[in-house]
Amino acid sequence: MGIVSQEAIKQFQALMDQVDEEPLKRTFQNVHQGYLVETFGRFLKAREYNVVKAHKMLMDCLNWRVQNEIDNILAKPIIPTELYRGVRDSQLIGLSGYSREGMPVFAVGVGLSTFDKASVHYYVQSHIQINEYRDRAILPSASKKYGKPITTCVKVLDMTGLKLSALSQIKLLTIISTVDDLNYPEKTNAYYIVNAPYIFSACWKVVKPLLQERTRKKVQVLSGCGRDELLKIMDYASLPHFCKIEGSGSSRHSQNGTDNCFSLDHHFHQQLYNYIKQQSLINESVQPIKQGSFHVDLPEPAAEGTQIAETIESELNKFGNGNGVSDSLDGLKINGD
Fold this sequence. Notes:
This protein is an alpha/beta fold. It is built from twelve helices and five strands. A hairpin with a 5-residue loop joins strand 1 and strand 2. Helix 7 packs antiparallel against helix 12. The chain is globular. The two termini are 19 Å apart.
């Protein structure tokens, strides 16, 4: 049962038509951006096409958004700029370009993200801001440019450099994954894993059965930096910087700031940061800008997410302890949205 039926969409629409609270209606508009059918389809897919469960999931999402003022998060800059630069240097994610079908291509430096320059709330804030900017600015713009609904993205995950010391960050990564699973379901069309080290096959073997089937089908492990395979779905200019040179791996310092899509100097992050600053200035007369993180209720990880995190941790520890490998192992973490 992989296709959303028109009847399910009609039932979902009828349930949502009963929502009359203005805050919920307003935040729902920020979620669907005019693409109701696609939005209903995402939530139905996330709940195995059960209309009642999908409706509950969407209502829980809307209530979370209202209670945590998510609609205002794009007017809450992380200041000063150097603090945000620290976040960008340790939470490696960026927009490298677009696929030939118009989907945004997000690069994620899984292995080299250290999450050690700020508190957990700043990293969650930054992650949600990128999600919201993607959904409220990037995807609507792409839809207009390509003349069709574009409501999902592609992610290229670079596995270079995950160290055993990063195991302490699995809890944070699980929180971020849970935020995505519950509130931004089915926003990723495909995951492409590149620069996968020898340990990857062992981790993937034990993690893969724990993933839901729809997530497993999205994951493709590419050879080396994945350049040749990725060029089948995107132009060279849209390749993440770590995919452009075979064997180069990923490094936050390997490219200049304008080419390294992780860097605050990259045009995507400059546009995002300037957008947030402009939005904050619009609201400044109402509420002065204050330094400090935007606190969001951190969800309890679902049983599945906890099991995956524990399995990854156990497998990496097994390699570290059993094989005498030092603090330089590579491994895997997938955000299963």
